[in-house]
Structures are given as structure tokens and as C-alpha cells.
Records
---
Amino acid sequence: MDTLTSSSADTLAAQRRARMAARLARRHSGDRLFKLAGLSAVAFSALILVFLLVSMASSGFAGFQRSELRFDLPLRGQLSIDRDRLAQPDPAGALELAGLPAMVDAAAEKGLGEGGSALLADGAWRDVAARLAAKPALLDNTSIAVSLPATDELAAAQRGDGHEALQPAAKRLVAQGKLVRAFDWGFLARSDATSPQAVGIWGALKGSIMTMLVTLVLAFPVGVLAALYLEEYAPRNRWTDLIEISINNLAAVPSIIFGLLGLAVFLAIFPHYRSAPLIGGMTLALMTMPVIVISGRNAIKAVPPSIRDAALAMGASPVQVVFHHVLPLALPGILTGTIIGMARALGETAPLLMIGMRAFVASPPGDLTSPSTVLPVQIFLWSDEIDRGFIQRTSAAIVVLLVFLLLMNGLAIYLRNRFEKRW
Amino acid sequence: MSPAILLLLAFGLGLVGWLAARSRAWAFRRRDPNARLHSLPGFHAWYVALWIAVPALVFALVWNAVSPALITAHVLADPAAAALPGFGFEREAMLAQARAVAEGKAFGVFMPEAEGLIAPYRVALTRYESIGLVVTILVALAGGAFAFLRLKPNFTARTRVERAVMGLLLLASLVAILTTAGIIVSLVFETVRFFGMVSPLDFLFGTHWAPDPMSTGAVDGKQFGAIPLFWGTIYIGAIIAMIVAIPLGLMSAIFLTQYASSTVRKVIKPLLEILAGVPTVVYGYFAALTVAPAVRDFAQGLGISSASTESAVAAGLVMGVMIIPFVSSMADDSIAAVPGSLRDGSLAMGATRAETIRKVLVPAALPGIVAGVMLAVSRAIGETMIVVMAAGASANLTANPFQSMTTVTFQIVAMLTGEGSFDHPATLSAFALGMVLFLVTLALNFIALRVVKRYREAYE
């Protein structure tokens, strides 16, 4: 009897242990599943990022190339032009008068076969002119090998789309090694154009740089001074609360609203400066300022009070305390925040569309008030183009933009690691 | 006169005053070694420099604003101006051409009538430029002399300079209020004009959106029903994007805070930051070029023939991906704010980590997570470029995610970048839409920040 109960208790206990073990295994596997779900969420984000970057980079690499035709251009004794004239302004004009375009066309007919000159992009001879102007000694060569941009149609045919009729010619030229995809340094030096073979990013890049300069000059001092005031001097009253609420809200207002403000206020005051870097910079400065204030306040808050007390004890006035001690110590943190805010402004598109920075601008802006476009808007405009040649160019522009953003963020991380003190 | 020259002049004179005042302050001490200066010589210098540069800059600013009008008035008073057309575009063009030639920016005029205006413009330009220059110098000298004569050994220069600095600081912080006020005033002003043409009821509750920026004549309020836009915005930004962003962002945050080792965290966190730093126009391009065609093919594979290249789901998916880092960092913060004792207690009772997270940490962090989601929604509905590039222009009131759908931000861009005039109700409707967007995001942010604040206090 005794043994019986003890054995049934044993089986009961064994059953309970087995159930317990099963439950535990289930709970542990649930834990592993949960961890796996978390891991896959992170992996998904990382994968998207990698896919985004790789697809942009690979397509962008093709965007840095253009279709070029290669042939020999006879030179010695062909051009009746004075060497010294090439050193003077407008050498291209002088070469045009001397008959360079016709020479290039003739050489193309000869080197590429009949109809070869029609395959060259408009103004392809200018590349030769620029080369000659840079190095007049080339005029002594019997002939030089040139590599000139092809027309959009031929470039499309080389890619395998576009006109059916051109495809055999393109295939033949490629087979002969006369039609190649060549790295196009000019992409970084030219401006917007109607043909994907002739576009460049420099105009938009210069516009972006000028806009960012205006933004920095306006937003940085105002942001830092406001942060100093709020953190160091502001009395606790209703006005200070109002300022704080405004800044926190401005940091969260959609960027397009700032575009509406720029349109309704800045363009009403300066109607002639539509699509100028000045107005764009002012609009983006309003957007960036709250970011600088918020990060600046955090950096100022991180400076230990003992430093202030020590300076005050030595007889410094409140203004001296802040400008001689607190501000220099907080500056790395403020700069990090500023760079991050500027990087955000650099990628911003919508507010600039509102204030008219979406026009076709074929030359880089001369000054802060001349019409201009900026990198993200240029990307947006090219992405709307019908010509498929623009797809790769758009990716190339995105690569340029991302490189600048990475540089800025890298600088911010470097500053943070190098100069930020932990008290 | 280019503003740069006046600017340089003001700063140059300021520098001269700065040096002069400093040497004078040093001279006080040299003359009488026992004299105690109230302020350091540097403060005397700044006092004088401020008195030189600030009035000169203020005058230069004012002069820059009024002198073009004075110059034009002077030219119009000239007999040669009598030949000008009375008003309109031609008159403006002629004046602008003559002015450009007179300033040396252009070499000739296209309109012969403008030829006679060049000479008067030259005269007026030189006259008003020299007046501006001379008065600027005079103002600077007067300010400098006034300040310089007040310098004495016991002069309280430091107090005065510091008061000016405080004024500057206050001014800088008022810029934020001014910006907010500027946004509200400009939005309200244009919205009121819009509601003068279209009834607010038609706008807020109408279901048909088809404004024609080129139309003339009577305004048809029935074209301005914004419900399809609101629906599209909510559907894309608050539903599809959040279906992507909330689970992925929350799970990322949980993995990073609870499971990942510190080395993994060090790699993954910057990756998420990069994802957050990619410009929206790049996401838009990605959505339009890669995601949208894939979504369309998928939908057609399912047998949905109405699927178009511009679909709500493509825009929403990419927007969701864009928001993941934001949700993740907000969730990260709120989970980190839960006291460690709650977590330790749960683990000590034998709960697995997953059970602790699901039954203890997430419920405790829920208010913060909800607030973070609200902020994420406010960011998503204000997002512009992704929807402009991927969502489409047609205002469909539908629940089919594969159809083209438009949003508030898309229509703001569409109405303001078209050819319509600034007084047209279609153009003004953009400001009314902006007003709605501003108020909604404001409310979301306000509530979310209050929730976060109260909840943080509850645990502290």
C-alpha cells in the first residue's frame, strides 16, 4: 500500500516534471522566437539600407559615365589660328571662327563612317576647343585621338532602347570600339541641360553650397544666442515659456509649412529674388534654427555648474562667465548639433519647391540673388524627366548628395568623439 | 551702392573706433597709475565700436530699403520719363533695363524708349549713392564721437556693453516667436481670403476635389471638397506607414535594448541613424522607381486590374521604412525610462525575457510608446517628397491601397508650383490645406509631449 502510493506519487511527480519541462521548453522557444522577431526587424532595416545604397551606387556609377565616340582628329596645318589668341578670353569663339566645328564633323564622317557627324551631340566640338585652349601645343600634332559625347538617341541605342533604326549602327560602333561608355568628369563641372548626355551637377551643387552658407550664417548665431539666453539668463516667466513652446513646436512643424511661410513672407518682401539662394537660405535657416537651439541647450546644460560658480567667485560678470567659460566648453556639442541640422537642411526639398527653386537653370548661380537650383530639387526635377538617360544621371546626383551628407555626418561624429567631454 | 560696401564701411569704422577707444582707456591708466578703471579697456573699446557700427548699420539698412523708391521717383520726374507707357509690364521692363545699363550690369537696352532713361538713372544713382555713403559716415562718426567723449576712468562701460549683449540674446530668442507668429499670420491671412471665396463647410466636408487653377469666373465651391485629401493623407501616413513602422520600429528597439550585446548595438544604431538621415527625395525616388512598379506587378499578379504605378501602398511602405528609426528611437527612450527594478523583479520571478518584455516592460512604457507613435504620425502626414513622387495626383476616396491617392502635402505642392495666379482660389486653397496640416501636427505634437512629460515624472 505504502509502496503503491509512493510509486503513484512518483509517477505524478514525474508527469508534473514532464509537463513542467514541456512548458519551460515552450516558454524558452517563445523567448527565442521573440528574439528572432527582433533580430529580423533590425535585419530588415539594415537590408533596406544596404539595398538602397547599393542600388543607388551601382546605378549612380553608370550615371557618372556617358556614351562617347572615339575617332582621330587631324590637326597640324588644318587650323589657321594664332597660338596667342588661345590664351585670350573666349578661345572657343576664336576656334569656332577658325572652322573647328566643321573640322570635327569632317573627321567624324571619316572616322565613324557616313553620317558620323550626325551622331555627335550638339556642340561636341567645344570639348576639343577646351582641350586645345588648355594645351595649345596639341596643334603641332598630326592628329589627336578625341572622345566626344554622342547624341541622346545613340546613347539610348547603346543601352538597348530608343530608336530601332539606330540599334545596328550602335552595335557596329561598339564592336569597333568607337562607341564606349566613358567616365564623365564633366558631370561634376556642368549644369542642368535638356539632354542627359550634356547635364552636370555643378550648378545645383553650387546652389546648394550657397544656400547652406546663407542658412549657416543666419541660423548659427541666432540659434546659439537663443540657446544661451534660454539656458543661462531667461527668467522663469510666461514669455520664456512662450519662447520654449515656439521652439519645440517649430522643430516639429512639417518642412513644407516653412515653404509656405517663405512664399507668403520672404517672396512678398523680395519679389525679384524668386528661386535665389538667399531666399532659400533664409527659409531653411528658420527651419534649422530650432534644431540648433535644442541641441545647443543640451550642450550648455552638460557644462557642470561648478565651472560657472568658480568663474563667478573669481569676480567674472554673468556675461563673462558665459562667453569666456560656458560657451567654449559647450561649443563642440553645439557644432555637432549644427552640422546635423545643416545636413537635414541640405537634403530638404519641399520648402524650396514652394519658393520657386524648381526652375530650369542652365548655369551655376553667380551670386546669392541669381536664380539657382539645389541638389535635392535637381534630383526631383531629373526624376520627372521622360528620357530614360536621366534615370542614371538622377542616381549619380543622389550619390553626390549622399556623399556630402555622409561627409557632414562623419564630421559631426568625429567632433563628438574628439572634443566632447564627459564631466 | 552695394550693401556689402556699406557693411564693410560700418565694420571698418567700428574697428577704428575699437582701437582708438582701447588705447584711450590704456592712456587713462598710464597718465595716472593710481586710477582704477571701472571696466577693462576692452569694454571701453566695445562700447565705442557698438556706438559706431549699430547706428551706421541701422541707417544703411533703412537707406537700402528706401533709396530704390527715391531713385525711381527721381527718374520719373525727368522729362524723358514722360514717354513711358502709363503702367504695366512694359514700363517696368524699360525701367529695369535702363537701370541695369546705368549700373553697368548690362551693355545695351532692348527697348529704344529706355535709352533716354539711362542718363537720368546715372545721375540719380550717383546722387543717392553718395548721399547714402556720406550720411552713413556721418552717423558713424556722430555715434563714435558721442561714445568716445563719454569715456572716463570710472565710466561703466562693462555694464552698458553687457546690457547690449543681453538685448542681443533676447532678440535672438524672440526670432522663434516671430517665426511662429509669421507662420500663423500668413496661414490665417491667406486661409481667410480662401474662405471668402469658398465656404469652409464645402472645403472641410466636401468629397470632390478638382480645383482648376486656370479657371476664370465664378468659383465653384463644390470643387474644393478636401475629404479625399484628408483620407489619402491618413490612409498613407497614419495607416499603411504605421503598419510598417510600428512593429518593425518597436521590435528593433526591443532587440537593441534587451537582447543585443553592446557591440551589436554599436553597429546597428549608426545604421538606423543613416536610415533616418537619408533625404526624403531619395526615398521618393526609390519609391517611384523601384517599389511602385514592384507593387503594381504584385497587385496585377493578384488579379487587381485597377492597380496603377502610382499607388498609396508604394508611398506608404516607403514612408513606413523612413519612419522606422524614429519610432525605434522613441520606443528605445521610453523602454529605457522604465525603472530597472520592474524588469529585475519580473526576471527574478522566473519570467523569460520575452515574457518580461511583453507583460511588464511594454505595458509600463506604453504611454511613451503611444506618444512616440503620435509624433511619428505627425511626421508622416507632413512628409511631402515621397507622396509627391509616388502617390499620384488623383483624389480618390477609396480603400483600395493599390489605387492612386493624393494627400494634403501633394496638393499644396501641386497648387503652388503650377501656373495659376496668386489670387486664384486654387492657389489659396494650398494655404488652407497648410493651415489644417499645421493645426493637426501641432495638436499631435502638443499632446504627445504632454504625455511624455507626465509619464516621465510618474517614474522619477
Note: The two ends of chain B are 61 Å apart (CA to CA).
---
Amino acid sequence: MTAQSVKWFWYASPQTFYPVAGVIARWCGAAAAVLCAAGLYIGLFVAPTDAQQGEAYRIIFIHVPAAWMSMFIYVVMAFWAAIGLAFNTRLSHMMASALAPTGALFTFIALWTGSFWGKPTWGTWWVWDARLTSELILLFLYFGFMALQAAIDDRRRAERAGALLAIVGVVNVPIIYYSVQWWNTLHQGASVSLTRAPSMAATMLTGMLVMALAFWMYSIAVTLLRVRCLILENR
Amino acid sequence: MLEAARCIVVRDLLVAWRRRSDVATALLFFVIVTSLFPLGIGAEPELLRSIAPGVIWVAALLSCMLSLGRLFAADHADGTLEQLLLSSEPLGVIAAAKALAHWLVSGLPLVLIAPLIALQYDLPAPLYPVLALSLLLGTPVLSLIGAIGAALTLGLRGGGVLLSLLVLPLYVPVLIMGAGSVDMAAAGLAPDGQLLLLAALLIVAAAFAPWAIAAALRISME
Amino acid sequence: MGGYGLYVWGAYGVTFLLIGVEIALLVNRSRKCSETKT
């Protein structure tokens, strides 16, 4: 029984974590604003116009980072859910619950921007391509998680049920993704994927990465703020 | 352990037999839904033949899902479920047995009725075995995954609709592979890939779902 | 935006609008739960 073994759970106490969360949230929020400004500058002004898609391709600087975040947040959510179930720490469950709305938001943004990218490029507002369809199902998974937690009055049961659902979901996400991929190639044949970006100039990639970082910092800030609210609401 | 499982399967089948009408209504639902599509879309044979696998599979999905509410509800109401949780038998085995009984009552009949529906949709006869096999492999997976959802939503207000929201996204791979196998066969290609993937899904579900169902039951019953 | 203005600004606009909404809702919630501190 050493001080070392105690340290892991030091920040698992909601009271200890509350101020820490506030500090981290502030810094990440600032970082998000700066990165977003930089990313938008690169995306809207520095990156060259695409030969095939013209200016419409600039939506990629929001669409792809949002899609990345939507999937990343789900995995992180499932991670905290697993920690919560394994160690019975309430704060872990609160993290998972706090991540869900932001994850769902990014999923919706990915779908919306994907749709707006599809209209000028492919002529329709919705394309049943692999990525958009997978994002749609991911949105349903997020909604299922939030709906389940909202439907249960007992907080402990709600957290743990949601946690199990999140873990079952995260295991299924690769299976869903690959089966949708296969389905898409069968039914659309050789048509180019909506999300296959034109030959990536270095600036385009940089813009996407900066925006992705911006979204990441934003997610951390927003999630930690939400956890603070959850801590106060669940004393 | 197997004795307990056998006991539970027999008991569930007996209960289902005593409530035959419940079971029959779920199967009737399957038939009615498949009849709705031609009414909504038009009865042109070419069209029906092409949508048949998808329609039959979606109807099977929905029918299976509707019958999931019955899986734990009755036992939960009369206290049997609590006793099962307290039993010395592994809860996973009990869960698997209940899922098996559910499939025998709600999934297997679909496999048997499907060829009749396929007949209505003028699906070529050589496709019937593929359709039946895909349903045979896929419906147990639906029962197993559905049981997780049923255990999580035990006794909740949202009930059936919430269960659908939770479980339908997880059903997507089964649907894609199941309908896809028949589509491949219809196109003259070998459906082996999809059927093997369905079998793989079944094995994985059979291996892991019982433990998830057990965990969910414990969470819901505390 | 080379004629694609509607799409580009429609996409960016809604994105930042929704992000703004999320932040606003969160600030509101934060204010409410720190006021009802028992």
C-alpha cells in the first residue's frame, strides 16, 4: 500500500476534479479558438482552388475533421464507460455522459456538411455512400445512448446501462463500418466515393489537421464544462 | 449447467405455447408487413423480385424486434427473473438459453414462412435455399443482440420504441449480409462470402452476447 | 466562392451556429447549477 497506488484515483474524486476541469477547459477553449482561426484561414484563403470541384471542396475542412471527431469521441466515450464499469468510479461515467452530446453534434455536422458537399459535386442532397451511411448509423448509436440514459430515473442504473450499451456499440462500429463499405461497393459499383478528396495538396491536408486539432480542443473544453455541471447536479 | 439451460428452454417454450396468440401475432406481423410493400410500391414483378430480399429481411428484423419485449417482461413481473439472477448457474448460460428459446419461437418460424413470402414476390426458386439459410444464420444473431437491448430496457417507460432505437443500428450488419447474400445469388454470383460472414457473426454473437445480456440483467435488476 | 457560395457558407454557417448553440446551452446550464448550490 504505497502512495503510488493511491495516486491513480486522486483525480477520480469529483471534488478534486472540479477545479482541474475548469482550468483545463479554459486553456483548451483558448487553444480551440486560436487553432480554429488558423485552420479557417488556411482552409478559406491559403489552400488553392481545386481543379475539379472548384470552391465547393472547401467544405472538406469541416466535414472530415468533424467525421474524425465523431468517431474518436465515441471511442473515448466507450473507454470511460469501460473504466466506469470496471472501477465503479462515478466520474468516469460522468465523462462518458458528458461526451455524448458533443459527439452527436459532430456526427450531425459531418452529415450536414457531407450533404452540402454532395449537392454541388454529385447533384443530390443525400448520397448513400459508405461514410455518410456509417455516420448516420453512428448518430443513431449516440442517440440510443442518450435516450437510454434519459429514460432511466435511477442515476446509477442509467450510467451503467449506458456504459454497457456504449461498449457493445464500440465493438460493433468496425463491423458496421465494414459491412456498410461492402454494401456500398456492391450497389454503387465503381462510382467515386463522395469523400475521396481530390489529390491532396499539402496545404489542404494541413488545413484539415489544424481544424481537426481545433475541434479536438473544443471537444475537451465543452466536455469538461459539461462534466462540471454533472458534478454539481449529482452531489 | 446444460441441465439448467435445457430446463429454461423447455419452460420458455411451454410458456410461449400457452400464449400461442402472442407468438402468432408476431409472425402475422411479418406476413402483413411484407404484403404492404407491393401495395405501397406497385406490383410490377421485376421490381418486386429485386426488392424481395431486402423487404423480407427488414420485415424479419422488425418482427424479431417486436417480440423482444416479451423476452424478460413476464419473468420480471412475477419475480422469476430475480430467482434466476440468484441461481448458482452462470447467468450467461441462462441468458443464452432464453435467447435460444426466443429464437425457436420468433426466429425459426420466419425461416419456414419466408419461402412463402418469396413466392409472393416471384423470387426464382433456386434462391429459396439461400434466403432460408441466410435467415437461419441471421435470426439467432438478431435474438442474441436483441436480448441485450431487452435486458437493458427492462421495465422502462419508453419500452419497445426505445428498444428499437438501441437495437436497430446494431442489426445493420446482419441485414446487409443477409439481404446481400440473396442479392448476390440473384445476380448469379456465389453468396458464400456473405453467408460465411453471417456464420461468423453468429459465432461471435453466441460467444459474447450471453455475457453482455447477463451484465445487462444485473445492471437492470439492482 | 466561385458560385458555390450557398453550399460552402451553408455548411460552415450551420456548423458554427450549432457550435455556438452548444456553448450557449452549456453556459446557461452552468449558470443554473452553480446558482442552485445547496
Note: The CA atoms of residues 73 and 79 of chain B lie 10 Å apart.
